[in-house]
């Protein structure tokens, strides 16, 4: 049978990745972090000394984009060619370059196809796929579609808690800038028709995971 697809979208710092991973672990589902694929491509672009704003050069490198994203929530890893880039794709230089790459239509259509085939082929009863356009473009017919939001204040506070004071201020500004750029390409700030909003502003991590699982349970 085709695995059940749980689509989760939301802005940066909404806790999407960690919540999705925890939900997948609890349900015995696979997990696909689509942002990691855009980040992996951005890493490859930077590694090759390509200007992220040179769309033609970015499109050319797509042909050589050999990447692997683990779909087992317990063994999450991202690889490009022979390099394990799991940590490198979180570096600020990658975060700063990724939006320019993600707005190239050829990049999006290429990755959307890959995400669909990864999701369809997972060897588990279901898969949680998270990103910005999963509920609207990658899997608009998914049985479960969730928009995970939190107030900007809450998102910044969570991101800052992971960092030192001055780094926190920079990260907050970066996050805001990235959301602005990304939301011009796909709308992940408003729930599309039929998408359930889970607002985690007043919830802690465990409560957010429970709220998402409750939405999934209510769907079958
Ligand atoms: O989720 P994360 O913040 O790691 O995503 C990194 C970047 O990848 C986003 O800022 C956005 O530019 C891009 N992205 C996207 N569509 C997705 C997931 C991520 O454009 N479905």
UniProtKB/TrEMBL annotation:
It catalyses: dCMP + ATP = dCDP + ADP; CMP + ATP = CDP + ADP. The keyword ATP-binding applies. This is Cytidylate kinase. It is found in: Cytoplasm. ATP binds at residues 10-18. Belongs to the cytidylate kinase family. Type 1 subfamily. Gene3D superfamilies: P-loop containing nucleotide triphosphate hydrolases. It comes from Microterricola gilva. Its main location: cytoplasm. InterPro entries: Cytidylate_kin, Cytidylate_kinase_dom, P-loop_NTPase.
């Amino acid at each position: 049978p085709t695995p059940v697809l749980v689509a989760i979208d939301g802005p940066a710092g909404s806790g999407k990745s960690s919540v999705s991973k925890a939900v997948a672990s609890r349900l015995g589902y696979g997990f696909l972090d689509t942002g990691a694929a855009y980040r992996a491509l951005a890493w490859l672009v930077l590694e090759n000394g390509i200007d992220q704003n040179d769309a033609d050069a970015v499109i050319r490198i797509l042909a050589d984009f050999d990447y692997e994203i683990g779909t087992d929530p317990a063994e999450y890893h991202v690889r490009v060619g022979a390099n394990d880039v799991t940590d490198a794709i979180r570096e600020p230089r990658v975060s700063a370059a990724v939006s320019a790459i993600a707005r190239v239509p050829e990049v999006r259509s290429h990755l959307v196809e890959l995400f669909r085939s990864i999701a369809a082929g997972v060897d588990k009863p279901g898969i949680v796929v998270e990103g910005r356009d999963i509920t609207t473009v990658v899997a608009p017919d998914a049985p479960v579609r969730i928009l995970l939001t939190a107030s900007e204040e809450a998102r910044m506070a969570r991101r800052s808690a992971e960092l030192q004071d001055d780094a926190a201020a920079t990260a907050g500004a970066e996050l805001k800038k990235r959301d602005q750029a990304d939301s011009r390409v796909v709308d992940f700030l408003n729930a599309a028709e039929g998408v359930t909003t889970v607002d985690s502003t007043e919830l802690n991590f465990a409560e957010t995971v429970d709220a998402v699982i409750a939405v999934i349970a209510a769907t079958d």
